[in-house]
């Protein structure tokens, strides 16, 4: 089982939901984690089960970061809003940093997310 964290800032939540819908056949084979509002949208709009953590501004990014440190996340898709300042920017940076510290594949835009989901699909199909 592959563990995937899905996170999106408000202006990117629709993009993420559409992306997850497009690749539902892949994501339904993964264990999904998300920050609270992102997870709710994925559950309600796509019908996938998601383990929901706190909302990003309330520490959810740090909780995902902690899961990464514990070796419990294999892939992260985090659609950030590059045009809006976030009150919890230090938490966002910390999450990105632990991905790099632990060499966890991280997509922060749809183009890279596409590449990442193809890699998830390849792994699920037993590819090395
Ligand atoms: O703020 C976030 C990531 O930094 C996402 O949090 P929500 O999914 O709760 O909106």
Automatic annotation (TrEMBL):
SMART domains: MGS. InterPro entries: Methylgl_synth (IPR004363), Methylglyoxal_synth_AS (IPR018148), MGS-like_dom (IPR011607), MGS-like_dom_sf (IPR036914). The keyword Cytoplasm does not apply. GO terms for molecular function: methylglyoxal synthase activity. Substrate binds at residues 9, 13, 55-56, 88. CDD domains: MGS. It is an enzyme of class 4 (lyase). It catalyses: dihydroxyacetone phosphate = methylglyoxal + phosphate. Pfam families: MGS. One of its GO terms (biological process) is methylglyoxal biosynthetic process. Its EC number is 4.2.3.3. Residues 1-128 form the MGS-like domain. Keywords: Lyase. One of its GO terms (cellular component) is cytosol. The active site is at 61 (proton donor/acceptor). PANTHER family: METHYLGLYOXAL SYNTHASE (PTHR30492). Belongs to the methylglyoxal synthase family. Catalyzes the formation of methylglyoxal from dihydroxyacetone phosphate. This is Methylglyoxal synthase. It comes from Thermosipho japonicus.
